[in-house]
Every structure is written in structure tokens, then in C-alpha cells.
Amino acid sequence: MTGIRLNSLDPVSIANWRWAYFLDSTVKASSVFNPNPFPIDKDFLFKECFVGSIRNPKKVIVETWGFKSDRIRKARCACVQAGKNTSIMNLVISPLNNYELPFFGADFVTLPGGHLIAIDLQPALKNDEKHNQHVWEKLKTLHSNWQSDLPFGGEIPMEARQYFSPGFLWSRIPLGDEGDRLIDQIIKPAFNDYLSFFVELVQNSEIISKERSMKILCGQKSYMRYRAEKDPARGMLRGFFGSLWTESYINNILFDLK
């Protein structure tokens, strides 16, 4: 099947996709930005294949939603469904570098072993007080409101810590009724709180100096390079769609700021 989506703002309609609520919330919250489609080639707007045996094929679908606006360089959401047991949402909202703003990032991953949950307002310059002082006080409050009700996700690798805030919401939760309860009662309102705070920051942001803007840009590029190099979905996507498509998707669509 090809051509079911004409641009990046067309709705994603993957049947039984576990994380549809969160993309719907993002679409609604983003309407205040008067979004325009971000140019994405049709081969990345929608991609489909079948893997496994002839007797028991598994359908794999990847769809990419996204937009740009006068303060958002690029927002994009990778939506993946692979059979019944794998469901992924990877969202990054990248502000323009002439505003003193963090990234908004959310990863929701369902695998046979459980759900991985990550939500954050990720700094371009973690150790720069000017970049973070207007963000972290409230973000820490949001984090304390929700993290205590969730299982801890585990230690973050040392090399990755510069790309996460002190308000990083991170959890591994089980499949089944308990996981569904945590998603409905904790993850959904937590996501909406983090996203609302980000939208508020964007709406209240002001143009910064050219010198400052270049410093922010350097930090944003470092973040994107790290995410592209360490993308944990690389192996899975290569297995589904091959190396050429996967590397182009990761480097030119998901993490494209060089």
C-alpha cells in the first residue's frame, strides 16, 4: 500500500497502535503554533513490509507525522507497529535556535518484555544556567508529582546524561492490567503536563542575540548527532527495511540537524 498520506500533517491511522492517545494529544496541543507540514518524502511518510514466515507473516508499518512553525524548526513523530507485540512512538519537537528553549522529547516503546517510558524537556546546553534556569524549577516539580508513582527505568549511561534534564521521567512498566493502569492514570496526565509546560515556554519565548543563537545551535547539533549515532531502533529498522532506508530515515528525517 502506498500514497495513503500526502503530507506530514495527515493523520496517522495505524490499526491497534498502542500510543495513539499521545500523538492525538500532541496534535491538539500543537494547534496553537499554526503548524505547517514539514517536507517529508512519501517513502518515510508511510512504509510497510511483512516479515516472518509465509504461514505466519508479521505486518510492519512506519508512519511519520510532523510540522514546522514560526518557532518550531521541526516536530516529528515516528510511529511504528510490528505485529501485535511491538508498538513505538518516538517524538522530538525541535525549537528554532534563536529562542532559549529546550527540546521536547517522548519515547514510548512496547516490546514483548514490557513498556519503556521516557518524557523530558531536553536541554541543548545542560550546564548553561541561562539556558535552564527558567525551565528546571517547574520541571522538577512536575517530575516529583509523577515519578514517585512509577517504577524507576534504570540508570542512564554516563555519556547520555548531558542530554537529559533533572526532570527526566523514565520508567519500565509491565504489560497487562497493571501497565495499562499506570499508562492511563500516570503516564497520560504526566505527558500532558510536560507538553503543556513546553507549549507555554514556546509561546512566551523571545528572540535571543545572534551570538547566543549560535551557541544554542551548537548544542542542538550535538544532541542530534548523539541521538542519530545511538538510536536504539536502528537494528530493528534495518531488519525490517534494510540499511539504506534505515540510515536515511534516522539521519535525514529523525535527527537531521547537522
What can you see in these coordinates?
This protein is an alpha+beta fold and 258 residues long. The chain has a single domain (20-209), classed as oxygen-dependent coproporphyrinogen oxidase, CATH 3.40.1500. The chain is 38% helix and 24% strand. It contains eight helices and seven strands. Strands 1-2-3-4-5-6-7 form a seven-stranded antiparallel sheet.
Keywords:
globular, alpha+beta, oxygen-dependent coproporphyrinogen oxidase, 258 residues
State the gist of this model.
Helix content is 38%, strand content 24%. The chain is α+β, with helices and mostly antiparallel strands and 258 residues long. The protein has a seven-stranded antiparallel sheet.
- Strand order across the largest sheet: 1-2-3-4-5-6-7
Low-confidence stretches: none
List the helices and strands in order: HHEEEEEEHHEHHHH
**Main structural class:** alpha+beta
Q: Which band does the percent of strand residues land in?
A: 15-25%
Q: Please, how many domains?
A: 1
CATH class: Alpha Beta
Specify the overall morphology: globular
CATH architectural name: 3-Layer(aba) Sandwich
User: If you average the pLDDT, what whole number results?
Assistant: 95
Main beta-sheet annotation: 7 strands, antiparallel
